Amino acid sequence: MCGIAGIYYTDRADGQRMHSEIAKMTLCLLHRGPDDSGYFVDDRIALGHRRLSIIDLKTGHQPMFSEDRSIVIVFNGEIYNFASVRAELIEKGHRFASNSDTETILYAYKEWGEECVSRLRGMFAFAIWNSRDKVLFIARDRLGKKPLFYSQYRGKFVFSSEIKSILVDMEFDRSIDEEGLGSYFLFSYIPAPLTIFSNIKKLMPGHTLTVKEGRATVKKYWDVFFVPDRRKSEGNFIHEAMELLAESVRIRMISDVPLGAFLSGGIDSSSVVALMSRGSVEPVKTFTIGFGGSTGGFEDERPYARLVAMRYKTDHREYEVLPRIGDLLKIIVTAFDEPFADDSAIPSYYVCRTARESVTVVLSGLGGDETFSGYERYLGFYMSRLFNRIPALVRDGILRPMINAIPESSSGNNRVNHLKRFIRASSVDAGRQYLGFVSKLVPKYGKGFFAQNGKRMSEAIYAAENRFLSHFNSDNAEDPLNKVFYCDLKTYLPEDILACTDRMSMCNSLEVRAPFVDHKLVEFCATIPPEMKMKWFRKKYLLKKGIGPLLPKPVLDHRKQGFVGPMAKWLQTDLKELTLRNLSKANLEKHGLFDPGTVGRVLDDHYNRKELNDTLIWSLLIFQTWFDLYSPSWSSESG
């Protein structure tokens, strides 16, 4: 795992200036690659690289050149099928100087050009400079496991693994992107291609970007289509899915450095550990997280993790997270460089820090919910079709007001809140119904939430909603439940789950691999009929049937907790003083973006159990910290 950066100058630049600029950009990525660094400067291009050594420790230095030095690459990620691609290239006459996957990409590009990406299986973001054609070619993996940001301004095109590397230019315009800001408060993250900065974009997963003669062209090279194959039996699907999952785990165990696994106690991470243990001579090193402080009725999954650890005799370690997160706010914000409010970043940071004390690479169960239908909201969406058969007079006149009046749980449990979201979203079309399930900005706060540019922000939120709905309404899926799965693969998975894992692991110099997010497994799961993934109101029905013999029964049967902390309870107890201080009227008026009265209502409703506003409150806390650290501005058009 590494960090990459680069500058393409539209006009010829001074060599000393080029060296200075790329060195500053690359130094910002030290945490992504503490083991080695390298630079390449020539004509109009400057490339930088920071390396975390995983494979081919002695000869994997980057930037790496083709034999005739006409092509140079900087690469972040891992290619799991590089050995077979390398063998094919050797047969075609290419000569290799190393055993690295980086050099395999280099010669794959030389042999197949931009189509080389279709042959790569793994997680990657890379940039190739073709000096003969004067072309910069950039690619990001299919599902967005590795990040890539870019900007074009003042006669140059710049790219990097992280936003901070672009912001190192003190003259860079830090104007806030209004749709990006609206998206953040809707979803807790900012979906690609947007960022919080209007002049910085994310390269979308499954896309390439080519820069020639100063002109940047973005192109999609991969997508997934949900086409259920109802000719196969349940048994056939289970067999093939388990074979693919086992293969996906096996190829991700290739490493020249110590390797372990996250073990949350849920089905996904437990499945990965079980499959790793079957293929490992040594005990698998496993790491799990628990929570301290005032957690109320929050279910700690450590006992389930211990059951799996005992069954497979893993080298198991636990860490307890306490709600002392004042300093962690800054760590999270500077890891993302833009607001990100999924509080799973807290346990993610600590489990990565704990794992890094023993290993350099870990496998994770990320993506199992998206591929095998594991989220509560999937069940809610499925049940909404039955609920809508209830006469409107009963549904809207009796049930809706009755459920909205139920107090939220004093323990911070989210079941009542989920029921309220279900009721509120039940009477609209399928796309907006799912939007209602995932949106964090409750409608009753929406209109008065933003004090500055209220009308423009309403338009920005509308644009953010439509961007989300464009994925849901895509032709890539016909069945409503498959539309939900596709939507999450394009939004929540890459921009929340995978982004969080990348940033929290990389700020600890740890590589995380996710077998459930293998594109071949994802493509196969898109052929499984949705009624097999969730059968008789049982989430992950097919996965549980397949992996059942390998896991303790309590692990299979217990209610999913998710890799999150007891934030709702913490905000009412341990973090209440910090929250009231940071979201005071005086602090909010520093930038004047939010209406203090509305924010006060958000807090009061949470403390009085009228509404579970933990995510929205955490979003405000993160945003306040980000604003103070990054000094953004509104563009002149926003005024």
Write up this protein.
With 639 residues, the chain is an alpha+beta fold. Among the domains are: 2-220, 4-Layer Sandwich (Glutamine Phosphoribosylpyrophosphate, subunit 1, domain 1); 234-290 and 300-319 and 340-373 and 494-557, HUPs (Rossmann fold, 3-Layer(aba) Sandwich). Helices cover 44% and strands 15% of the residues. The chain has 28 helices and 17 strands. Strands 2-3-1-9-8-10 form a six-stranded antiparallel sheet. Strands 4-5-6-7-11-12 form a six-stranded antiparallel sheet, covered by helices on one side. Strand 6 (122-130) and strand 7 (135-140) form a beta hairpin. It starts with a strand and ends in a 9-residue tail after the last helix. The mean pLDDT is 88.
Task: Explain the layout of strands and helices.
Blueprint: E1 2-9, H1 15-27, E2 36-42, E3 45-51, E4 64-65, E5 71-79, H2 82-91, H3 101-112, E6 122-130, E7 135-140, E8 149-153, E9 156-160, H4 163-167, H5 178-187, E10 201-202, E11 207-212, E12 215-220, H6 234-251, E13 259-262, H7 267-278, E14 285-291, H8 302-311, E15 315-321, H9 326-336, H10 345-356, E16 361-363, H11 368-372, H12 376-387, H13 392-404, H14 415-425, H15 430-438, H16 443-449, H17 454-472, H18 480-490, H19 492-506, E17 511-513, H20 519-525, H21 530-533, H22 541-547, H23 553-557, H24 567-572, H25 576-582, H26 585-588, H27 596-607, H28 614-630
Parallel strand pairs: 13-14, 13-16, 14-15, 16-17
Antiparallel strand pairs: 1-3, 1-9, 2-3, 4-5, 5-6, 6-7, 7-11, 8-9, 8-10, 11-12
Question: Which structural traits does this protein have?
Answer:
alpha+beta; Rossmann fold; Glutamine Phosphoribosylpyrophosphate, subunit 1, domain 1; 639 residues; 6-stranded antiparallel beta sheet; globular
